[in-house]
Design goal:
The complex is a heterodimer. By secondary structure, chain A is α/β, with parallel strands linked by helices. Chain A contains 9 helices and 7 strands, in the order βαααβαβαβαβββααα. Chain B has 3 domains: about 160 residues, Aconitase, domain 3 (2-Layer Sandwich); about 110 residues, 3-Layer(aba) Sandwich (Aconitase, Domain 2), CATH 3.40.1060; about 170 residues, Aconitase, domain 3 (2-Layer Sandwich). In chain B, strand 3, helix 2 and strand 4 form a beta-alpha-beta unit. The complex binds iron/sulfur cluster. Chain A: Pfam families: Aconitase_C.
Chain lengths: ~190, ~475
């Protein structure tokens, strides 16, 4: 996993609530056995028309939102399936963080394991962000803050300290679990 | 083959009343959470399928790791597999090369890592959440995970069962453990009794309509009350299956005599003396009198009507003869209604239906097929409707055929298929066409879920069958037969 300390980028805004994983990456793209090419298919059914041509009305096809590194999305983002293809697709599309007022559990777990930062903010700050698509934000994982470049408005966010530590140092969760071998063995023996 | 019994340790009396969830959680903590790390939770059973596992197996290879406990894995194939049988030469009609390769990859991975696989030629193959219980692998008190959000289904047996992503699939393969934050608990109390013609699918849709699709975020539900106790094991699975559609991590029902009767004598169930011991342990699991939940939700089961969805997530559900609302949970429904081509204030009764899908891990078990068959009997699929009936497993299929249900479906003009996820996720070529309206017994009505541009109405098997034979959205109670 890549080290994540700070990200400064402009946002793209998808304000609707309950954007599910089938929208982020439709199921027909799950037949791959690796992680390649998912970025091109992120939000496929919103992004492309029947002929597979980019839909100009969709925000991620518009400059500068197509280059955004931070996605601001409506409440309950990432609901639905457990497919890790969803964060893989968003990372592939160039996003490093998602900001919402609520993010689904499994999506959040998956995102954290791949270096995509899921950030939950209060609705006042969220409204500020959705009102200014393309605004530049600075996300500081060390300080756990999001700052709007324009007026310096800043909010804190909470994140599981373990996941934060892993992201800050580029450490994989599996490495930690592998170090627990003795405790796992002891548990299995006691349970047998 | 010998299978380990669940790891229920420490039967000394608890010092304070605990919930079912707390008991299972505490019994599986290899390490409790500290300020530095979440709890290390031991996993008793890992269910594996072709879609969410290949990248995890590759990660093990990359690190030179083994699957730590192949004996705690159960693998099958269901998502990318065709719902049509093999040809005379034994070749299966995959939708494309990618699907075939994904399935072949699972065969290769299971062989390489020593995991038992129920493949397309096995009499045990089926949708992963249908065969786990059927094999007796799903047992009270176990921790069960799968790279699949509907793992919540297994909670019907009083197992703590939840979906995980592919990274975590790798974690469980390598260490049999997961790093987990302890969720909060919600008691979902269904008081009173269901009316005739109302089932578990209606209960769960009513709950999600009440609390919303994010209403369970961070929670484990325990379904309780008279109406839940009265449900069969199959209905309890339907109920728990859709816990995730409310955003809950898992759903639980306390194990009881019905649970034990269901499990007795199944291939992975404990046998002989071990069975008696297991049942004694399982009897200790239900929530103690006076145990506290973080939240309680009350639903009056006697007021639930047959439910149907009208929008693009499962929370957009209503009693079948209600009119479509302009707003639900303060959320305007206009975007969803625009997609669905419905108008606020209109009724769905009488809407022309193009496709009916009876299947998926929500409603593809034998009781669902019996319910559907009671409506198809002596009736025909309406002209212009395509009805697809996909049993959840080979065993369900064989049972249905032994009872002659397939004959009822075929005689009516419905397609009787091979076990797979099929139109629930539309990965195997079975799909609803763009703009077509489908009544489906599956669990997700997201935009494009059943095929690009598909419009899905979720409902129970009776409502789906009634739509098939009338060609329009119909209250099945008008037809009788259930
Ligand atoms: S039937 Fe549908 S919900 Fe169930 S496992 Fe298959 S794809 Fe997932």
């Amino acid at each position: 996993m890549d080290v994540f300390r700070q990200v400064t980028s402009h946002t793209a805004v998808l304000p609707q609530a309950n954007i599910d994983t089938d929208q982020i990456i439709p199921a027909r793209f799950l037949k791959i056995t690796d992680k390649q090419g998912l970025g091109e298919n992120a939000f496929y059914d919103w992004r492309y028309d029947e002929q597979g041509k980019p839909n100009p009305a969709f925000v991620l096809n518009q400059n500068p939102f197509d280059q955004a590194g931070v996605l601001v999305a409506g409440d309950n983002f990432g609901c639905g399936s457990s497919r890790e293809h969803a964060p893989w697709a968003l990372l592939g599309k160039g996003f490093r963080a998602v900001i919402s007022t609520r993010i689904a559990d499994i999506f959040s777990n998956n995102a954290l394991k791949n270096g995509l930062l899921p950030i939950v903010v209060d609705s006042a700050f969220h409204q500020k962000l959705t009102a200014q698509p393309g605004a530049t934000v600075n996300i500081d994982l060390e300080q756990q803050t999001v700052t709007l470049a324009e007026d310096g408005a800043r909010v804190g966010f909470t994140i599981d300290p373990f996941a934060r530590y892993c992201m800050l140092h580029g450490i994989d969760h599996l490495d930690f679990l592998l170090q627990q071998e003795e405790a796992i063995k002891a548990y299995e023996e006691a349970a047998a | 083959m010998e299978h380990p019994s669940p790891t229920n340790q420490g039967s000394s009396p608890p010092s304070r009343p605990r919930t079912l969830f707390e008991k299972i959680w505490q019994q599986h903590e290899v390490k409790a959470a500290t300020a530095d790390h979440p709890a290390v939770l031991y996993i008793d059973l890992h269910l594996i399928h072709e879609v969410t596992s290949p990248q995890a197996f590759d990660e093990l290879r990359r690190r030179g790791l083994k699957v730590r406990r192949p004996d705690r894995c159960l693998a099958t194939m269901d998502h990318s597999t065709p719902s049509l049988p093999a040809d005379a030469a034994g070749a299966f009609p995959y939708v494309d090369d990618l699907a075939r390769k994904q399935v072949e990859k699972l065969v290769e991975n299971c062989r390489a890592f020593g995991i038992e696989l129920y493949d397309l030629n096995s009499e045990h193959q089926g949708i992963v959440h249908v065969i786990g219980p059927e094999m007796g692998a799903t047992q009270p008190g176990k921790t069960i995970v799968c790279g699949d959000s509907h793992t919540s289904t297994h909670g019907a047996f009083g197992a703590l069962a939840f979906g995980i992503g592919t990274s975590e699939v790798g974690h469980v393969m390598a260490t049999q453990c997961l790093l987990q934050h302890r969720p909060k608990t919600t008691a979902v109390e269904f008081t009173g009794r269901l009316k005739p013609g109302v089932g578990a699918k209606d209960m769960i849709l009513a709950l999600i309509a009440e609390i919303g699709v994010g209403g369970g975020t961070g929670q484990v539900f325990e379904y309780r009350g008279e109406a839940v106790e009265a449900l069969s094991m199959e209905e309890r699975m339907t109920l728990c299956n859709m816990s995730i559609e409310a955003g809950a991590r898992a759903g639980l029902v306390a194990p009881d005599q019905k649970t034990f009767d269901y499990l007795k004598g199944r291939p992975w169930s404990p046998q002989g003396q071990a069975w008696e011991k297991a049942v004694a342990r399982w009897r200790e699991l239900p929530t103690d009198e006076g145990a506290a939940f973080d939240r309680v939700v009350h639903i009056d089961a006697s007021r639930i009507e047959p439910m149907i969805t009208f929008g693009t997530h499962p929370g957009m559900a209503m009693p079948i003869d209600d009119t479509v609302p302009a707003e639900i949970h303060g959320e305007a429904t206009d975007k969803a209604l625009n997609y669905m081509q419905f108008k606020a204030g209109e009724t769905l009764i009488g809407k022309k239906v193009d496709v009916v899908f009876i299947g998926s891990c929500t409603n593809s078990r034998i009781s669902d097929l019996r319910e559907a068959a009671s409506i198809f009997r002596d009736r025909n699929v309406a002209p212009g409707v395509r009805a697809l009936i996909v049993p959840g497993s080979k065993k369900v299929k064989a049972m249905a055929e032994a009872e002659g249900l397939d004959q009822i479906f075929r005689a009516a003009g419905a397609e009787w298929r091979e076990p797979s996820c099929s139109m629930c996720i539309a990965m195997n070529g079975d799909q609803v066409g763009a703009g077509q309206l489908a009544v489906s017994t599956s669990n997700r009505n997201f935009e494009g879920r059943q095929g690009k541009g598909s419009r899905t109405l979720l409902a129970g098997p009776a409502t789906a069958a009634a739509a098939a034979v009338t060609g329009v959205v119909t209250d099945a109670r008008r037809l009788g037969g259930t």
